[in-house]
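Appendix B. One record, verbatim.
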Amino acid sequence: MKALDQLLQRWRAAKASPFVQEGDRLLDVGCPDRVLIDKVLAKVRSATGVDALLEPVSEGTVALLRGLFPDDFDFAAETFDCICILAVLEHVEDPAALARECHRVLAPGGRVVLTVPHPFVDEIIDWGIRLRILDGMAAEEHHAFDVSLTRPTFVDCGFRLVRERRFQLGFNRLFVFEKPIDAGQSARGGSNDRIEFG
């Protein structure tokens, strides 16, 4: 991984980490290493990382599992309090299936924290690879996901959007969705939504 890849990865982790709360049971989806997990380890109850390239590890409160989420795992319902999905959604063939499984395995009141790049980033990555300043990290697996579909994909599964923010010069977007505590609560919003843009 090139230095610029690492910088962008650390930047995403820095944007996501404030939404991982004290005592959370964390699931980090698509973590080829432990950047986010190590950043929040002191405050979480447990951390599980899943990625197709991981070497399985179980040490203390950390478990690293090889495989793709949700296809290769059958976590119990309400197992996690926070699910981080950083620079992954654009690699997923069925984002709606992923969102549904997040809702199933997330405890009420829990959060899904995502970063999703603008599709134009694919062109920037291509140039970065040609100039040998980026490895691209599986850019060929991008499915040209339209970032504007992120909100409806998760809201339609019962989440409510509580934060949306652009970063990395506007080329990346952070989303935080919450699973309502009351299953009967409307996921489509209302006067108590804490949506922030910018």
